[in-house]
Design goal:
The protein is of the alpha+beta class and 145 residues long. It has one domain. It is 50% helix and 19% strand. The protein has a two-stranded antiparallel ribbon. It has a two-stranded antiparallel ribbon with strand order 3-4. The protein starts with a helix and ends with a helix.
Length: 145
């Protein structure tokens, strides 16, 4: 695998983790949202990742034909939680039904915070990998001087 392919793999990981972090922050921000423009409470969202081949220059494509393929990651889809909302008895709430129950999103802030920390660490790991590759490229240039 070339150094530039390693950069492309890490860049794809950073993009996927950024999308995951954005969704987790959206979930946390809407943990108590009982009314959305679509109607009903907010629905939790999750990112589903899948591997993808990393394509770059012609040399990278030629190398991919002769050696094992380098794979990155991408967001395959964003899944919306289809479970029924959590019902809480709050008769004075403006969104309460005739029985006094309000539909709240099924968002667990503690779980989403842990997932957000994992996404942040995954992003940081890819930044560290890019930094290491950048240092290798710089040392190669210094050797050629």
């Amino acid at each position: 695998m070339s150094l530039f392919t390693a950069l492309a793999v890490s860049a794809s990981g950073m993009a996927a983790q950024r999308t995951r972090a954005e969704l987790l922050v959206e979930n946390l921000a809407n943990a108590e949202t009982t009314r959305t423009p679509e109607g009903g409470p907010y629905r939790r969202k999750d990112a589903v990742f899948e591997s993808q081949p990393v394509a770059g220059s012609f040399a990278s494509l030629l190398e991919a034909q002769t050696q094992p393929e380098a794979t990155g990651v991408q967001v395959a889809e964003i899944v919306v939680d289809g479970r029924p909302p959590e019902q809480r008895y709050l008769p004075g709430h403006p969104d309460a039904d005739a029985s006094g129950y309000v539909a709240f999103p099924r968002v667990n802030p503690a779980e989403d915070m842990v997932d957000l920390m994992a996404a942040s660490r995954g992003y940081e790991a890819n930044v560290a990998a890019i930094s290491a590759v950048k240092d290798m490229i710089q040392r190669s240039i210094d050797l050629l001087r």
